[in-house]
Amino acid sequence: MDPQRLKGNFAQVATHGMDVAEYFYADLFQRNPQYRPLFPASMARQQEVLLGALVQIVSLVDDPEQLVPYLEELGRTHGGFGVTAQHYPEVGTSLVSTLKHFSGDDWSAELEKDWVEAYGVVAGVMVKAAGQN
Predict the structure, then answer these.
(1) Is 130 helix (H, G, I), strand (E, B) or coil?
(2) Residue 19: domain span
(3) In the chain, how many domains are there?
(4) Over the stretch 23-66, which tens digit does the pLDDT of each residue have?
């Protein structure tokens, strides 16, 4: 996994702002309509929270001493909202789909591999912290 490649790609994707979060949730709920009740009726705040978390995670991708405690807290919080280990793979699928969509022609097999690997680490830490491993 190349942290600089992830950071560069996310900087490109992030220029699309809230469209990224809207696309992500639309993709997630289209693939998994049963997940919709886990979220509030109005998604505006949730979309802001998602983008903030992604910015934080990507900014710390090469600093595990700060990233891991952040992910552990995020995992515990998500567990309190009813998110289980079974939700994470589908969330990862929608996240990668979203990143690919907003990367356009810059998307590559290497970039996809980096994101899938990074998400696997993130999800693993979060699930473990929530006590669901």
Answers:
(1) coil
(2) 3-129
(3) 1
(4) 999 999 999 999 898 888 889 998 999 999 999 999 999 999 99
